[in-house]
Design goal:
This protein has 28 helices and 18 strands. The chain has 679 residues and is α/β, with parallel strands linked by helices. The longest helix is centred in the N-terminal third of the chain and has 25 residues, at 52-76. The structure holds thiamine diphosphate. Keywords: Metal-binding, Thiamine pyrophosphate.
Length: 679
């Protein structure tokens, strides 16, 4: 035993003892007492009564600690809060009303849901406040619809789903929103806080599940926390790099006091100390849940922080651009985020006069006739450009991870998110300038500072020439049976009105549409984004049509992806949401089989049938059309085209009469997508 430990064993040091040391560097040896055995190292073992100041100090410290512990316990039990905030046990009000108040104060017009008892108070309160409750046939659809509302309206889209399986059913849709940087609020029911982990119905740890899928995953603890938690949650979803936020609302913060009191129960006639303690704890728990519940709280939106590039950075980019001979702008989805209106961004691009490629939600930002708009030959243009400005475009798989730029190309990247801004810049490309900020406001500021700039004409002419040549190559040749997808989509482009919106949900058919059908205005193209999720169609169309009732909403489906949301025809019919679903029915998961078969020798798992999907739409109360080639009968290219256009127009007429419509277009083979992404 060391001298130090022998000292410590037998006596508690005072501060002065700790300060003074024996000559050897050990703490001073205490006084030896005769008759007490020596320690093994030969030193004395000492019994000493502690000095009075030590006892008093210890007593004070203990009392302080006990007082502190009591305070903490009182705080945890809500006793302190309840000193100043009363519980209104007679009130019939419930937490669902507070949820609805916050949503209404944030301009929320729709609540997408699939019901469950855990969230009933939210649904009923929303209905009362005039928020339209739209119930879907799958929770994923509810979240996709909320996502579409966020993207199109600039206001937070909201979905509410029940505890457990309701919540887990949304996982893919929430992840999709996160990857697409789309803000949304997901409200999840949950078991009563008190019953968590005790075998309650539909109880799982939901918050940890959503932590990596969301910007924030929160659980509300008491009724009084509903308003501040939701305000913060909505602001978090919308500011910076937007994304989904999950808020769990345990059932006992949503129902009225008298219902919760009855449910919490506890022993009717508590026996013994233990029973009395349990009874007291439950009563106290209930009081804490409702303390201060109905005091007035501000439900209005919190100010949002949007990162913007500094004026010097804009200036630096302006200098680079003014010297460029072959500049190019790539506009990505992020540039369409609020607060800059799309029209302002469009004017900025037109005033800069630099040729543009538009991706994701930015499609349609420039009108189809705009001479700056390019759709073909992007790879060549990127190789030949001397300056590329990435306005919200990311160097991920869509830009071949940054491998497409020419050797001497100066790349200027603007993105709200630092990770996205520099994605793969350590490997395949190097930015000349990397600016963390909102791409839209950056482009507007850049256009203002470069009012005299004009892009060299020869460069623009050269790109337009290549564009024309490529467009001519897209001649649609009829396959031996059924329709050519190119011809069908050209007909769609022909009949599409100026006020229309396209939802893309599928593989090859939709990939082909992206080249052929031209969205007519900003925010008139919705696709899943970089998560590449099949199944967004029903929800996106639902949210889009509700936001833009005056627009003709088309969903372009593959026959495979249609299966994920075909049942939502029931939702469209019940909620009077007339949309047009065009199904490119090629009897298979073609984007996958296209490469699986030649590479691996089998198309196993990729086959579907030419099923009567239109009949399902009819059975659910919608309208259905089949579109096929004329088979053996005489059908010239022109008359075939006319026939297709006639069916599309008939579908439009049904839609304008208020009916959701499904056009089941039977497709033959096309090699248009050969060589493109196939995973
Ligand atoms: C939820 C989900 N499951 C599977 C995939 C993989 N996948 C990508 S494209 C594709 C085929 C799509 O087939 P279909 O919708 O019929 O369109 P087509 O390629 O036949 O035009 C599949 C299965 C995916 N992206 N998302």
């Amino acid at each position: 035993m060391s001298p130090v430990s022998s000292w410590c064993l037998h006596s508690v040091p005072t501060m002065s003892q700790l300060g003074s040391r024996c000559p050897q560097g050990f703490p001073r040896c205490p006084r030896w007492i005769p008759g007490v055995p020596r320690a093994s190292h030969g030193g004395p073992i000492v019994l000493q009564s502690p000095p009075m100041d030590l006892v008093a100090g210890l007593g004070c410290a203990c009392a302080g600690l006990v007082a502190l512990a009591l305070l903490v316990v009182a705080q945890r039990l809500g006793l302190l809060y309840r000193l100043c905030h009363k519980v209104d046990t007679a009130s019939p009000r419930h937490g669902g009303e507070l949820v609805a108040e916050v949503l209404r104060a944030h301009g929320v017009r729709f609540l997408f849901t699939l019901p469950g008892g855990h969230i009933s108070p939210v649904l009923v309160a929303c209905e009362k406040l005039g928020i339209r409750v739209v119930d879907t046939r799958h929770e994923a659809t509810a979240v996709f619809a909320a996502d579409a509302v966020s993207r199109l309206s600039g206001r937070i889209g909201v979905a509410a789903v029940t505890a457990g399986p309701g919540v887990t059913n949304t996982v893919t849709a929430v992840k999709n929103a996160q990857m697409a940087e789309s803000p949304l609020l997901l409200l999840g029911g949950a078991a009563a806080t008190l019953q968590k982990g005790r075998g309650a119905l539909q109880d799982i740890p939901q918050v940890p599940l959503f932590r990596t899928l969301c910007k924030a995953a929160l659980s509300v603890r008491a009724v009084r926390d509903i308003v501040p938690t939701l305000r913060r949650a909505i602001a978090t979803a919308m500011e910076g790099t937007p994304g989904p936020v999950f808020v769990e609302l345990p059932i006992d913060v949503l129902y009225p006091f008298h219902v919760v009191q009855k449910e919490i129960g506890g022993p009717k006639t508590p026996r013994g100390l233990r029973g009395k303690l349990v009874q007291w704890y439950l009563g106290n728990y209930l009081q804490d849940l409702f303390a201060g519940a109905w005091e007035p709280r501000d439900p209005t939106p919190l100010p949002l922080r949007v990162p913007t590039a500094a004026p010097e950075q804009v200036q630096r980019c302006a200098e680079l651009l003014s010297r460029a001979r072959r500049p190019l702008v790539l506009v990505g989805s992020q540039a369409l985020l609020p607060p800059t209106p799309a029209e302002e961004l469009r004017s900025a691009l037109e005033s800069l006069g630099v040729p543009c490629y538009l991706g994701g939600a930015a499609r349609g930002l420039l009108s189809p006739e705009c001479p700056l708009l390019l759709r073909q030959n992007r790879r060549d243009a990127l190789r030949d450009a001397d300056l590329v400005l990435l306005a919200g475009t990311v160097c991920d798989f869509r830009l071949s991870y940054g491998r497409l730029f020419g050797r001497g190309t100066a790349v200027v990247a603007v993105n709200r998110n630092r990770t996205q801004l520099l994605r793969n810049s350590d490997v395949f490309w190097k930015p000349r300038l990397a600016l963390q900020g909102d791409p839209a406001s950056f482009m507007v500021a850049l256009a203002r500072s470069l009012q005299d700039f004009s892009c060299p004409r020869e460069w623009l002419e050269r790109l337009r020439e290549a564009e024309r040549n490529k467009e001519q190559d897209k001649a649609a040749v009829s396959p031996p049976c059924h329709l050519n997808p190119l011809a069908l989509l050209q007909a769609v482009d022909q009949v599409l009105p100026p006020h229309s919106l396209l939802v893309a949900d599928g593989g090859d058919f939709v990939g082909t549409a992206a080249y052929i059908v031209r969205p007519r205005r900003p925010l008139a193209w919705l696709d899943p984004g970089p998560f590449g999720t099949l199944g967004v169609g029903g929800g996106f169309a639902l949210g889009a049509k509700l936001c833009r009732p005056e627009a003709e909403v088309w969903v372009l489906y593959g026959d495979g992806s249609l299966g994920f949301s075909l049942m939502e025809f029931d939702t469209f019919v019940r909620h009077k949401v007339p949309v047009i679903a065009l199904v490119g029915n090629d009897a298979g998961w073609t984007q996958i089989s296209r490469e699986q078969l030649p590479l691996l020798g089998s198309a196993v798992g990729c086959g579907l049938a030419y099923s009567d999907y239109h009949a399902v739409a009819v059975a659910l109360g919608g309208r259905g059309f089949v579109l096929d080639s004329a088979g053996d009968t005489e059908d010239t290219e022109d008359s075939a085209g006319d026939r297709v256009v006639a069916v599309l127009r008939a579908a439009q007429a049904e839609c304008h009469r208020g009916h959701p419509v499904l056009i089941n277009a039977l497709l033959g083979q096309s090699d248009f997508r050969e060589g493109s992404v196939s995973v």
